[in-house]
C-alpha cells in the first residue's frame, strides 16, 4: 500500500489488517466442503475447509481397538510374570535344599535344576513378550496421535480471524503445503508509511496525529534501508486499534510537542 507524502511530516495511509497470512494444507486429501459464503466475514469455531477424513477415522477406530486388546493382553502377561516369579523363588529354594543333600543322587539334583531352568526360561520368554507388547502399544499410540492430528488438520479453523480469500474448491485434491485460504488478523490495524529521509531522523521524537487528532501511537517498525519501490523513502509501520471498517484512508502527521 502506497502512502504518498503531501508535504514533510504529513502522510496518508490506508488502514490494513494487522496481518494477512496463508494457511496451507498440512496433509493430503480431497476437499469436500468450503465456507465460500463466509469470505470477508469473521470466522467462528467451525472449520472454513473440510477435507475427506473417512479413511483416517476408520483406521483410528481400528488402532484404538488394537491398543485396547494389547493392553488387556499386557495385563494378563504381567500376572503370568508375577506368578512365575513366585514359582521361581520356591523352586530356587527347593533346588538349593536338594543340592546340599548327600542322600540325593546326581540325577535327582539335575532333575531339580532342569525344572528350575525351564521355569526361568518361561519367565524370561514372557518378559520378552511383555517388552514386545510395550513397543507395539507405543507404536500404535504414536499412530493414533498422527491420525488424530491428520483429522484435525483436515478441518482447519481460524476463530476470531477474517476469511480473506478461499483458494480451493470442493472436489479439489490437495497435497501438503497447498494454500487453502488467506486469513486476516483484524484484532488490530496497520498503517504503512514511506517517510522522507528528513522525517526518519526525527520521527521517533514527534507526536503522531491521526486525522488531526492527537494519539498515543508510536512508530512500531522502521526500516533503516530505503524501500525498493520508493527509493528515496523509508518504510514505517504504525499499529493502531482496529477500526470499524478497514481500508479507510487516514491522514498521519508528526508534530512536535
User: Main β-sheet: number of strands, strand sense, barrel status?
Assistant: 5 strands, antiparallel
- Structural class given helices, strands, pairing? alpha+beta
Give the N-terminus to C-terminus distance in angstroms. Answer: 29 Å
- The number of distinct β-strands equals 13
The chain-level mean pLDDT equals 90
Walk across the major sheet and give the strand order.
1-2-13-9-10
> What's the total helix number?
3
Order of helices and strands: EEEEEHHEEEHEEEEE
Give the helix level as a range of percent. Answer: 25-40%
Computed Rg: 36 Å
Principal-axes geometry comes out as elongated
What percentage of amino acids are in beta strands? 25-35%
Uncertain residue segments: 4-8
Please give a quick description of this structure.
With 257 residues, the protein is of the alpha+beta class.
Write structural notes for this entry.
The chain has 257 residues and is an alpha+beta fold. The protein has three helices and 13 strands, in the order βββββααβββαβββββ. It has helices at 54-100, 106-153, 197-202; strands at 5-7, 10-14, 16-24, 29-34, 49-51, 162-166, 173-174, 179-195, 207-210, 213-214, 221-222, 234-241, 249-255. It has a five-stranded antiparallel sheet, with no helix packed on it. Strands 3, 6, 8, 11 and 12 form a five-stranded antiparallel sheet that branches. The protein has a three-stranded antiparallel sheet with strand order 5-4-7, with no helix packed on it. β9 and β10 (213-214) form a beta hairpin. The radius of gyration is 36 Å and the shape is elongated. The two termini are 29 Å apart. Residues 4-8 have low confidence and may be disordered.
